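Fill in residues.
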């Protein structure tokens, strides 16, 4: 099982991870985080292939992928 963890309060909603994901696992949330950004959220977890493109792309190290 693959676990995608988003550290919501570290996310500044740049969207780089959303564009990097080849499977459409992530999307910008409609919920604000503590810093006032619309953080990224997992919307299609079952499609994740654990490529970690999102985590490598994130400039704020706000994403962790576990197999």
């Amino acid at each position: 099982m693959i676990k995608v963890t988003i550290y919501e309060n570290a996310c500044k909603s740049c969207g780089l991870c959303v564009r990097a994901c080849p499977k459409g696992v992530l999307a910008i949330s409609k919920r604000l985080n503590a810093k006032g950004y619309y953080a990224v959220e997992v919307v299609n977890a079952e499609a994740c292939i654990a490529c970690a493109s999102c985590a490598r792309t994130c400039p704020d190290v706000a994403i962790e992928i576990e197999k």
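The domain at 3-66 is CATH 3.30.70.20 (Alpha-Beta Plaits).
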